[in-house]
Amino acid sequence: MTEIIESEVIRTGTQLRSGSQYKKDLLDARRVWVGGRQVDDVTQEPTLGPGIDLIASMFDDQFDPDLVDVLTMEDPQTGERCSRAWQIPTSHEELVQRRRLIEYTSLRTAGTFGRPPDLAPLVALGMYSRAPLFQRSPAAFSKSNHDFAANIERYIEHGRRTNLIAAEVLADPQNDRSAPAGTAAGLLRIVGQTDDGIVVSGAKSVGTIAAQADEIIFTNLLRPDLPPEGCVWAATRVDAEGIKLICREGVSNPGADPYDHPLGYKGEEADQFIIFDNVFIPNERVFNVGDTELIKLYGACSQWGHWHVLTRMWVKAEIFVGVAQLITESIGTTGIPQVRNMVTEVIAYAQTLKAFVLAAESSGGMTPGGVYGPDINFLTAGRLHSIDNYPRIIHILQELCGQGLVMRFPRAAFDNPEIGHYLEQLLPGHGVSAREKVRLMNFVWDLTASSLAGRTAIFENVNSTPAPFIRERLYAEFDRERMVGMARDLAGLDYE
Ligand SMILES: Cc1cc2nc3c(=O)[nH]c(=O)nc-3n(C[C@H](O)[C@H](O)[C@H](O)COP(=O)(O)OP(=O)(O)OC[C@H]3O[C@@H](n4cnc5c(N)ncnc54)[C@H](O)[C@@H]3O)c2cc1C
Q1: Within this chain, do residues 70 and 159 fall inside the same structural domain, yes or no?
Q2: Pocket flag, ligand 1, residue 271 (CB < 6 Å)
Q3: Binding site membership of 177 for ligand 1 (Cβ less than 6 Å)
Q4: Which of 280, 300, 320 is the last residue of a domain?
Q5: Looking at 252, 279, 300, which one is the last position of a domain?
Q6: What is the pTM of this model?
Q7: How many separate domains does the chain show?
Q8: Nearest atom in ligand 1 to 461's CA
Q9: Could you tell me the CATH number of the domain that includes residue 388?
Q10: For residue range 428-472, what is the model confidence (pLDDT) as tens digits?
Q11: How far apart (Å, rounded) are the C-alpha atoms in residues 109 and 496?
C-alpha cells in the first residue's frame, strides 16, 4: 500500500482506482440475489466476494511500477494515467501493446474469467471503430435527435476517466426459441421515451460479471423478425432503478485452503440473469434506438472482443502446456513416447492459437472510425479451432494425471498425525514430495475437472457464439473468389 501511495503515478495525477476504491464503489444501490436471498454487500458474499477481491487486486496492480506500462497509459486528453483497457489502437504496434493487457488479465485469472475488466471496453471500442456509421438520421423510435457517434466517443472517455468495468450482455432468456422474436418472453425493448432518454424493459440471460461491475452494456441480436422497439444498444449503471440481478449457483471454493483448491479459492466471475423493469437510460448512454442497420454492425463491432477471447485461449493453452509438463515430470512419465505425444498435442494447440492471434494482428487494418483491428477471418477460424479442440486438450491433461487427479487429499489429511505420514511416504513423485505432487493435482482438478472448470468449459464453448454459428460466420465472410479461380484454372473449367 505504501508503494501504491508513493508511486509516481499517484503523484503525477491519475484516473485510476485502487482495489479498495473499486470495492467501495460496488456498495451502491444494486439489487442482487444469490440463492434466492437479496444480498446487502456483494463484496462480502461468498459467491461474489473472492472474485471481487481478485478483480480488486488487478486494480491495485495498476500502481505497480513494474506493470504501469502494461496496464496503464496516458489519457490523450487529460495527460493523466488511465487504464489501457480503454486504449484506441491506431496501428499494429498499439494493438500489440493493448494485447499485453489481455495476456495479463488472462494469466491473473488462469483464463477462468472470460469477462475480466478489460473485455467490455473492447465492445465500446468496436462501436467507436464504426462511429461514422452510427452518425445516422434519427430512426423511427428516436424521439430526440441522438448523436450516437458522439455518445460512443463520450462513453469511451467516461470509461477512461472513471476506470470503469462493465458487463456486456446480448443473449436472451432461454425460453421457446421457435417463438417469433417479437413475442419472445423477456425480449428487451423500448417501452417509453422522454426528452431526456429512453425506458427499457425485458431481460438478458447471461450477464457475466454484472454484479461485480459498475455498468452493463447491452443490446439485442438481430433476427429477421426483431421488432423496431427491440433495436436498442445502450449502457446503464448496474444500480439503476429497475435492474435486478439474479445470480446462478456458485462454482468456486470460497474460503477454501489455497492448498486444497489453488484456483477455486480465488473465486469466480459470476453470471447473472438480469431483469430490466422500466429502466431509464439517459440519452448520452444510448448508442442505437430503433435502427436495424446499426444492430447489423454487432458482428463487425465484436472484432476486438473476439480477439480478446482468442488471446485468452492462447494464454490459457500455454498454461496447459506448463501443467502438462509439470504433471509428467512429477510422476516420472516424461520418457514414455505415448505420453510425450500427448504433451505435444497440447503444445501444438498452444502454438496454433498463438499463430492465429499473431496472424490476425499483423494482417489487420484500419476501420472507418480510424481504429486498427485484427483480421476477422483469422480470428473466426482461430476461435473455431480453440473451441473445437478444447475438450480434447482438457481430456489429455486429465489423462496425463491418471489416478492422481482423483486421489487428492486436503492439507488437513497430510497434517493429521495418524494418517499424514502414510500419505507422505507412499505418494511422493519423481523428485517431488507427496504434498507438492498433490497440490499440483489439486490445481489440475480446479483447472479441468471441478465445477469451476465445468462452467469454464461451457463458457468457452458458447460465450462468443457456439461453433455452428462460428462456422456459418466464416462461411459467410471468407472471400473464396481467388481460390475458386485457382481451382477452376487447374481443373480447366470454362463455365462462369
Ligand atoms: C457461462 C456463460 C457465460 C456467458 N456470458 C455471456 C455474457 O457475458 N454476455 C452475453 O451476451 N452472453 C453470454 N453468454 C451467452 C452466450 O452468448 C450464449 O449461450 C450463446 O450465444 C448461445 O445462445 P443460447 O445459449 O441462447 O443458445 P440457445 O438459443 O438456447 O440454443 C441452444 C443451442 O442450440 C443450437 N442453436 C440454436 N440456434 C441455432 C442456430 N440458429 N444455428 C445453429 N445452432 C443453433 C446451438 O448449439 C445452441 O448452443 C454466456 C453463456 C454461458 C454459458
Answers
A1: yes
A2: yes
A3: yes
A4: 300
A5: 300
A6: 0.95
A7: 2
A8: 53
A9: 1.20.140.10
A10: 999 999 999 999 999 999 999 999 999 999 999 999 899 999 999
A11: 53
